[in-house]
Amino acid sequence: xxxxxxxxxxxxxxxxxxxxxxxxxxxxxxxxxxxxxxxxxxxxxxxxxxxxxxxxxxxxxxxxxxxxxxxxxxxxxxxxxxxxxxxxxxxxxxxxxxxxxxxxxxxxxxxxxxxxxxxxxxxxxxxxxxxxxxxxxxxxxxxxxxxxxxxxxxxxxxxxxxxxxxxxxxxxx
Length: 173
Prior knowledge:
With 173 residues, this protein is of the alpha+beta class. The protein is built from three helices and nine strands.
């Protein structure tokens, strides 16, 4: 149940958010990945929704949350502004789904999500941030909701309609 003082935030691709216990952060992920960071004592959390692990070209421009490394850096900076040491947070990782299983023979179609998920693991490990759980890969998209008050993250994976229809008919997708 949602209380009157609760604030719901929806993240679009390329966005991140940092908030306190009043916030629930939601998003919808396909091959994109979300990292959540949560400080249990302060009940402050952050969540990203990045599209790609990193930029293809080294461009000197402001940090962009569409890229995993930059999204994590932006979240860490904002957490520090709130008095939170990011290394004292626990992390959870979600997404990296294969949205086009029918195109598995194509080199990049299924690999984007996998690269994003593996990049998230590596980025957090390099920063010394402990990952407490993850829901990565597989077929289809995920609906995510992060309750900053409790630190709980709910994820529901939904398979593409074509995959479900083929499975029901007994054919292989």
